[in-house]
Design brief:
The protein has helices at residues 140-144, 152-160, 163-187, 228-244, 281-297, 303-316; strands at 65-66, 93-102, 106-114, 121-129, 194-198, 201-205, 247-248, 257-260, 263-266, 273-274. It is of the alpha+beta class and 320 residues long. Strands 1-2-3-4-6-5 form a six-stranded antiparallel beta sheet, covered by helices on one side. A two-stranded antiparallel ribbon has the order 7-10. A two-stranded antiparallel ribbon has the order 8-9.
Length: 320
């Protein structure tokens, strides 16, 4: 299969070798996410879990590592019923093809999970939160406010930003995003299906074509290539499902929405906001609609539709 890779920021492509063999151990950290999904809750923060491969196991004859599916606990795997494309066979191998996107908190890679000798294979996006030495923590203060760990020493380390504390924070970001994706998927919102989490690596549905070309962000879509009314309706439907469940995206814009073959998909959700518990909940709802609405109105969508959606979401969230 020929692979093509697209970085939506600078179109720079990186061909990855058999990487990450001896990556430092990372921690699956418990976090206080509202709802039923608490990935990593069974793991104590002192138990190291590599996000790549088991160093005691032999490398597969092909691919970069054995599948990590059996290394995630039940709460670290996506909600059931799982899509048919999810490869759960223990004989599967993971092959990394390149980087899709770089970011301040995490990098996203293209990864294929396949069963050698069969046609059972699927492409996934592997989102890896940066470790304490390479990650920028520009949003951590607001995100961690009011959140504590069951062990006070971990909370202290996070507060002091020690190396262990930074690792724990990275684990909380990954766990928060996996939990949010799981909750939103179950609610029916248009988000990538979360396959599994292991430490600070999230494997999720790849939004793009079978050759590995990633879907463009909404900000990159030209008006003549899109049905603006249909995309707006899709967006409103997903945001309404979030609001009815009591949440707002919290950082929505045309840069964290993908469009693939007319399908709108919302990404980057570790910071979703409980609009009922948060005193600024209505403001978060309004900001999400205003930010992404600016892209639509600049391309002809009537401003009244943006205002109507903001009012409808407040009603759905029972804020009015």
């Amino acid at each position: 299969m020929r692979k093509r890779f697209a970085d939506s920021d600078d179109r720079s492509f990186v061909r990855m070798s058999r990487r990450g063999r001896d990556r430092d151990a990372e921690y699956a950290v418990e976090y206080d996410f509202p709802g039923d999904w608490l990935p990593g809750a069974e793991n104590e923060p002192d138990s190291a879990a590599s996000t790549t491969s088991n160093s005691s196991a032999e490398l597969p004859p092909e691919g970069d590592r054995w599948s990590t599916w059996d290394r995630s606990t039940p709460t670290e795997k996506g909600p059931e019923p799982r899509p048919d494309w999810v490869v759960t066979e223990l004989a599967a191998v993971d092959t990394e093809f390149g980087i899709l996107k770089t970011g301040k908190e995490a990098d996203v890679f293209l990864l294929e999970r396949s069963v050698p000798g069969t046609d059972r294979r699927t492409l996934m996006a592997a989102k890896r939160y940066r470790d304490g030495n390479h990650r920028l923590f520009h949003r951590d203060s607001g995100y961690l406010e009011g959140r504590t760990h069951k062990e006070s020493r971990v909370s202290r380390a996070m507060s002091k930003r020690t190396e262990f504390g930074k690792q724990a924070i990275a684990g909380q970001w990954a766990a928060a995003e996996f939990g949010a994706l799981s909750r939103l998927w179950q609610a029916g919102a248009a988000v990538p299906y979360p396959v599994q989490i292991l430490g600070t690596e999230i494997l999720m549905e790849f939004i793009g074509d079978a050759e590995g070309a990633a879907a463009p962000r909404l900000a990159q879509v030209r008006p003549e290539e899109a049905d603006l009314d249909d995309l707006w309706e899709q967006l409103g439907h997903s945001l309404s499902l979030l609001a009815r469940d009591g949440y707002a995206h919290g950082d929505l814009s045309a840069y964290n929405i993908l469009v693939h073959e007319g399908r709108l998909v919302i990404i980057d959700v570790p910071q979703i906001v409980d609009v009922i518990a948060n005193p600024r909940g209505r403001a978060f709802l309004d900001r999400d609609v205003r930010n992404v609405g600016a892209w639509f109105t600049a391309r002809g969508l009537p401003q009244r539709k943006v205002e109507a959606l903001a009012e409808a979401l407040a009603f759905d969230a029972r804020l009015d």
